[in-house]
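Data availability (excerpt). The following record was deposited with the supplementary files.
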Amino acid sequence: MERIHNFSAGPGVLPEEVLLEIQQDLLSYKGNGLSVMEMSHRSKEYEEIFNETVATMKRLLKVTDDYAVLFLSGGAHTQFLMTAMNLIQEGKVGNYVLTGEWASKAYKEAKKIGKLTHVAASSEDKNFSYLPKAFNISENPAYLHYCSNNTIFGTEYRDDSIFPTNIPLICDMSSDFLSRPLDINKYALIYAGAQKNIGPAGTTAVIIRKDMIDKFAPVKETMLSYKTHIDGNSMYNTPPTFPIYIVGLVLKWIEKQGLENIEKNNIAKAGLIYDVIDNSEFYKGTTAKEDRSLMNITFRLASEELEEKFIKEAKSLKISGIKGHRSVGGCRASTYNALPKKACEVLAEFMIKFAKDNG
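Predicted structure:
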């Protein structure tokens, strides 16, 4: 069956070779007579799958034993809550950089549970169309939290050297995790929903520096305590076994490509689409050029009617998922790791033709 050009913002496209491997082993994993979905998470077979997934993550990011690698349920939304519950001790203040929907939700979640919070920077004044580069840190900071890539507004922090190094740094990397090389040692905690770049919906990768354990605020809710999951090696309860298995396959696919090559490919893919936008008055980008995302390319046409026509005609060419988020409208092309370059070439060619036909 011919596959479509999937520009969905999430769940996003998965590598075809990974899907084929899953298909091959779906009924009987490696000849064991059962699917991974049917395995006990305490079995030797699944333990091997899980341990190799963690090991591959550690190899990719050169993660030392100073960090714990977890795979949890609940998505990034649960991490909005857990970071605040666990890491803002009495008298300490959670500092937040507000650059879009998800960063703002993380901030609001901390406030909701009564934690001390502070807005260290915000781009809300211009509808999150740019990224602030200066930060006003509170007294007694517990951490600085930011979101590296904003799927709705199409901005991305690609240079993390601008962030202060004298306080713990926390990042929601859900939509650009492992899209480029990363120095894990700059971070106290990283979390990322799997469904953009590293697997299907259903699990969230969390990498946390172990010395943060001593700084944890008392958390009486067992499942919301990082210590619970560190001590249990992500298996205090039954983990999302099948999504973690797929994440392991995707991580091996990324490792085979190499993160440097993944980044080069992502730059090239996004460049094909941005070049059309930049060289045409027909399309208008919605973000500051220096802050544009390589993962989520957002743009507008002259009217909503024209955008609807654009999306409809694109679908006839098997170009899917380019409607903008319902809260902002417009168009959005998500070019995650596994999206083939050919898909971006097809979209760019269609954009040029559509502009000529409707300009």
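Summary of structural features: The longest strand covers residues 141-147.
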